[in-house]
Amino acid sequence: MSMKSMMFSRGRFLLSVFCYLVATGQFVCGQQAGMFDELEPLFPDSGAHNGKAEFSSTVPRGGVAGVHLLLDRLASDSEVTVESAGAVVIQQLLPVDVQQNTGVESRTELRDGKLNPHVIRRAPFQVFDAIRPLPSGKALADGSGRLSLRLEYAVQRDAEPGIKKIHVTLRSGSWKQRVTWNVDVHPAVVPDDQPGYTNWFSVANLASYHGHEMWSEGHWKTIAQAAALMREQRQTMFWIPWGDFIALDSDGKLAVDQKRLDRFAGLFLKLGFEQVELGHLAHRENGAWGAKHLVTSLGKLRVDSDEGKKLLLDQLAIIRRFVLRHKLHDRVFQHISDEPLSAHAADYVMVAKMVHEHLPEAPVFDAIHCTDELVGAVDVWCPQLDIYYRHRAFFQERMKAGEQVWIYTCLSPGGAALNRLLDQERTRCVLLSWLLMKDGLSGYLHWGLNHYRKGNDPFKETSPQFDDKPGPSRNFLPPGDSHVAYPDGSHLLSSVRLCAHRIGMEDAALIGGMLSQKDQSEMVSKLILEPRKHELDVQAYRNARKELLDRTSP
Predict the structure, then answer these.
(1) Phi, psi (5° rounding) for residue 390?
(2) Which of 88, 84, 73 is nearest to 173 (CA)?
(3) pLDDT tens, 439-469?
(4) What is the number of alpha carbons within 13 Å of residue 244 lying toward its C-beta?
(5) How far is it, in rounded angstroms, from Cα 133 to Cα 70?
(6) Where are the alpha helices (DSSP H) in 380-535?
(7) Residues 400-426: what's their mean pLDDT?
(8) How big is the CA angle at 512 (ends 543 and 339), to the nearest 5 degrees?
(9) Which of 217, 230, 361, 537 sits 20 to 30 Å CA-CA off 416?
């Protein structure tokens, strides 16, 4: 072959590659912005060239579509303008530090002493998780010329099905690029009913980490914004921590701040929260894990003492007046003590009897660590996920007896199990809700919406130490367990993990509301294989979700 022919053939080959990349939406030289599935983890060192210039998402009516953009090779600290027509919400993704990897069983590898192979990257690293609104449509690239963005498009329940083509123009100085997001609005409609879902939040942190005095008007505004965020993420339940509203006066009697309590509850109820958790009545004596006795949360009196019993009865009377005044008869649940053990089960059962007698409107609902001793006391069981699997037959029997079973995650499980930690696949956040549908569970609870440890930076200290033990026995929370939302001025920021959980709740509403029991089991079994074996590939999940939408279309 002549030199001229070889050059011609090479040119044709390069042209073919160029045409293929353009046709498939892959990037060509010079392009500096790439679009990624919102469930794919993005890191500050990810490359925009791995993304697409044109991306497609399928979303049911009543759902929220999201896509992530990564920009690189921009001028250092340059301003980027993002322009898009229509009701597209433009946000910035912020990186957070992952200091330690989750343990194989629980906590972190430091405590487990084993290497966990089921992580997305070895710590320490950074991953994009926090989401900051960009109402101006402008953001600054970092010192290395990188920027990560999130686009959201909320689809109304009565929207017309079909493809909505969203063009996004990115500008910075003389640089300009346009990307296209094709949102396929599916005919399926997300039902209102879904499994229960609650995140415990710190009222105090909504003041201190946002620059407010407790119960100032600024604090109330942040509480309202945080409540709206929780509801947007499909949270159905909120809690009332009694220590913020009831206190012992100088005479040792209970005093309630009725105005504050009514304002707080009314704020959440107006946003459409369907269920109310009434805060814990008791705790372990002296805070000891294996304590033999419980003490009242207010006053720290032994619950089996005459003084303790009287205090509990007075508190229950206050709570019942609140429940009746707000007409919450079939919407409240009463916590007694968090994670009860066999050691103090007798005290727990005694308090439960008091609740059943004096607050009959409120089923007893707790995160639990023991089983048989609490039969007859607990109405709504909420075992840690790994405890649920160890005692699955027991909890299935409780459901047959007409009681509810929820699950929660806290410190564990680790390894390949489902959780919503920073060093895990985002599909795990989604599949937590699929798991509920597989076993007929009623809801999911997580303790850590914004429970930052005092003095910690929530963006940098995502595995804080939660005890004072020295050396290798120190207990650290797994990365991201303490919080899935971040403080930013007067606002509480959402996260990629919270958005992934919302997707799972949309799916659970469709599975539970639109499929027969047999079809539910078949659908969920495509992704939930065994207690610690799941299909976590993003494309495999997207394929299963498309099938779910097709099967639940009107």
Answers:
(1) -70, -30
(2) 73
(3) 999 999 999 999 999 999 999 999 998 876 6
(4) 21
(5) 16
(6) 385-390, 392-400, 426-439, 496-514, 517-524
(7) 97
(8) 105
(9) 230
Q: Name the band, by pLDDT with cuts 50, 70 and 90, for residue 392.
A: very high
Q: How far is CA 348 from each of CA 242, 378, 423, rounded to the nearest angstrom? A: 18, 9, 36
Q: Is the dihedral of CA 519, 520, 524, 529 positive or negative?
A: negative
Between helix 496-514 and helix 538-551 the angle, nearest 10°, is: 30
Model confidence pLDDT, tens digit, residues 45-100: 999 999 999 999 999 999 999 999 999 999 999 999 999 987 899 999 999 999 99
Predicted pLDDT at 22: 40
Output the CA–CA distances (angstroms, integers) from residue 473 to 450, 462, 467, in the order listed: 25, 19, 10
Name the token pair of 143: 């010192």
89-to-132, 133, 138, 339, 495 alpha-carbon distances in Å: 11, 8, 12, 40, 15
Exposed/middle/buried for residue 48 (C-beta within 10 Å: 0-12, 13-18, 19+): buried
CA pseudo-torsion sign 480, 39, 48, 78:
negative
Please write the tens of the pLDDT for every residue from 91-124: 999 999 999 999 999 999 988 889 999 999 999 9
List the structure tokens of 337: 């003590």
How far CA 524 is from CA of 57, 82, 415, in Å, comes to 21, 38, 21
DSSP line for 89-146: EEEEEEEEEE-SPBPSSSSBHHHH-S----SSSPSSEEEEEEEEE-TTSEEE--TTS-
What integer best gives the mean pLDDT of the chain? 93
**517-524 helix and 426-439 helix, angle to the nearest 10 degrees:** 150
Mean pLDDT is lowest, of 36-50, 71-85, 117-131, 294-308, for 71-85
Residue 425 near residue 42 (C-beta atoms within 8 A) = no
405 burial (CB, 10 Å; 0-12 / 13-18 / 19+) is buried
Contact 103, 111 (CB under 8 A): yes
Residues written for the chain = 554
